[in-house]
Amino acid sequence: MTVHLPRRRLLVACLAIAAAVPTVGADAGGASPATPHATAAEPGGTETIEVFHEDGTISQAEVPAEPAAAPDSATTRMAAAATVTPLQETGPSSERLDVVIVGDGYTAEQIGTYHQQAGAIWAGVLAEPPFTDYQGAFNVWIVDVISPESGIDNDPPRSGIVRDTALDVALYCTDGCSIRADSTKALAFAASAPEVDSLIVMGNTQWGHANANYPSSTRPGMMRVPGAREGVARSVLHEFGHSIGNLADEYVQSNGGRYTGSEPTRANVTTYTADQMRQNGAKWSLYLGSPTPDGGVIGAYEGTWSSYRYGLYRPSENSIMRTTSSRFSLVGLDAMERAIRAKATVPATDYQVTLSADTGSAAAGTSATFTAQTTRRSGPTENVTLTASGLPPGATADHGVVRTGGSRTFTIATSSYTPPGTYPVTVTATSMSGTRTATFQLAVTAPSSAACVGYALAPSASMTAFDFDYWIETGLTTSTGGTLRACLDEPDGAQFSLALQRLVDGQWQFVAMGSDGGPGQLLNYDGPAGTYRYVVVANSGSGAYTLAFSMP
Predict the structure, then answer these.
(1) Could you write out the three-class secondary structure of 217-271?
(2) What is the CATH number of domain 460-550?
(3) Model's pTM, two decimal places?
(4) pLDDT per residue over 126-151, tens digit each?
(5) CATH for 350-445?
(6) Minimal CA–CA distance to 520: which of 470, 425, 452, 465?
(7) CATH for the stretch 25-243
């Protein structure tokens, strides 16, 4: 067959590190490394691997490094003659992510079993978002690697059995067993596929789980998995989080310390607390408080990136980057989908946003609520950020992120000094596929009671008709300028007035008058730096009153 050498289009360049899963049953005892393959070079040094436990948790261990020598001439000839079968071919490799599967320990009579197991693993991957909606972004190639003998080295665990196989896959056992392979031989066979973005080496065994390297500048990401083990797709998904999404691990080792470095570039780790993200708009600030597919809500959970128990935060309590039995978080899904779209040609998502109501009302100091609903018409599911703008003075609104097809309830909270009027509030939906908007007309009415809340100062006094008070007679000084606001809670049956004066060249000048706020007065004034005082006048009636005000 014609050999098309891959151009090794890499999604990300990372440090080479491996990942592996311990097994159950026979390999649960003490350390007993596998006997090295007679034809394999003795590994030099060690490398770090991830250890996937039966309960889904993950830890790390040190194992001998795999050989890095070039494949021998026999391997090169066999690889050039290997049959390549598309498990899934959706388009040209220049517009797709190419996943290549090579097997070891499968004889010619077991190629059917090999294909069946490879298909089962890929089906498990496609069952989990984002792969469910992005299936068309991938080509998957199966390279038939025929071994003289069935099985892999040291299988059953700690048996010391050595088998004659093409890729020298073996179980390396310490507290548990991980799958190791001759990477250079695996890469030689993978080169028979049209392209290689991610490589899965599949051993003919039921023991162990994934054993993977991040992609580097010289080779694609490589996973080693047991073809006959159930549930191995969960570990493959975790490793795709690294090799495709450039996501950091979110678990922490028992000896994890404190992180003191700079802000990481990985999308799912940060040095910022939730409050700091809200203030500076960094990382996943717009996601905070949003429900996430892996359970709970997006926040800032301390302890992540395998080595740091303190000083670093992850987006969710327990995503698949922390526990393989879980799912990708909203933040992880966004990173994965952006990486897939950066490499593969994917149709834009056609969606719309609608509101449960076009209009609503709230008395100043109260809230109005409505629901923003997103609807996906076509294309993959993706994250949509929902925000509100055009709010009246003194009002706030929440925001959040949903998946297309999801909804978010907005609460617009006005303050007691929000001026009455009608305000068009724009709800903006933003995703990788574009922006959509909808408008909510908010009618703010005068407060239903004269209870003035939300102000810094609230002095009380009493007056009789035709009297007046100054607050404060000598004035209050603001050095920055800004909005001065006040609320006068007058006694029942009385009619009081509220005014604001500014000291100009030694003389007090009236600059603003309060407006009718129902049973009280509201005053808002945008003024320069200077000295101000409030004036309360009893036009008719008498009794106790409260003046609440805040300075900029």
Answers:
(1) CCCCEEEEEECCCCCHHHHHHHHHHHHCCCCCCCCEEEEEEECCCCCCCCCCCEC
(2) 2.60.120.380
(3) 0.75
(4) 999 999 999 999 999 999 999 999 99
(5) 2.60.40.10
(6) 452
(7) 3.40.390.10
